Amino acid sequence: MEALDDLTYKIIKCAMLVHRSLGNGFQEVIYQRALAIEFKINGLLSQREIEQDIFYKSTKIGTRRVDFIVENDIIVEIKALISLENVHLAQTKNYLNAFNKPTGLLINFGAPSLQFKKIFNSKGTP
Fold it and tell me: By residue range, what is the domain housing residue 9?
C-alpha cells in the first residue's frame, strides 16, 4: 500500500486533469463520472457512492453516501460550487468518522481554479 500522501497527490492530480479538461460549470455527477475514469486510467482503485449507516446510541437513524473511497483508505467528497464553505468541511469530517478512514479530500470543481482541502480524522484513526 502506498503512503497516504502519495495517494492524495495522485488523487489531486486526477482531479486537476478532469478540471483542466472540463472546466467549471457542470453538475457534480459529471465530475464524479469523469474522476472515476481518471482514477481507473491512473491505476487507483476506487469505489463510488458508498453508503454507511449512521447510528445514535446504537439505533440506526439514517445513511450517508460518500462520493469515493480510494484504495480503501481515502474519502473523496466532490462539489461543484462557486466556493467551498465550512459546512462542506464539516460534512467531509463527518464522513471520515462514519467510515472510519484516516484521510479525506474535499475537491471543488465549480470554481474557475480547482479547489481542494485535505482533512484528517479527528478521532485519530490509524
Answer: 4-120
